Amino acid sequence: MTSVFPLPSPTLPEFTTLLLKGPYHASAPIHLCLTHLANHPGSRAVLLTPSRENFVAALRDFNEDWLNECGGYGAVSQVLSRVDVFYPPTPVQASLFLSMLREARPETAPSQLEIESPCLVLLHEFSSYFLDGETSGSHCLASYLSLVAHALTTLKSLSEQASRLVLMDSRLDCLNLPVLEPDIHGLVAADLEGPNSPYRVAFLIHHYFEWVGTFESGTAHSRNHVPM
């Protein structure tokens, strides 16, 4: 059973690909990894998020009682030690990481981009690449879509046990990107009209995932055929 809350709590349906968006709580990715790995002894999870500073600050500000009380327990700590967290600072580096991620071979020690027995890849707050920072306005629709496509390709190169992809992005519904890069052929902001008007990324991202859940006022709702 996989959940974004401490157990016992409502659980997510069985999934291969899952998108969670909206104002979810800061500890949601921790609980998702923890509950998923608890059902897969010996496996690992890979979590990619753009900023270590933002990730840690959000957890500190949320200050969840359950994590404060139980996070240091031996059983919980042991499971959390099987979560490998990486902080690629740009979408190019995130894409490169995903394209190079491999499952470690049993006969050799894993290298930096080889993970032993991964069963979950979690992409966290990727809209930050396109909404924050000095280069946020230099990207196009394909910039975000290619990150998800690289992640899906990575899953195919891993074992069948590793065929789980989760994208958690609280600001996805706020992300609008042009079809073409703004600086191509001398385009400026005033030219981004008609066919190249900013496009809502969430409309296309939905089609990459088997399940889509939206948090609204702290409650998750499913867009798939069966309620979560």
Automatic annotation (TrEMBL):
<protein>
    <submittedName>
        <fullName>Uncharacterized protein</fullName>
    </submittedName>
</protein>
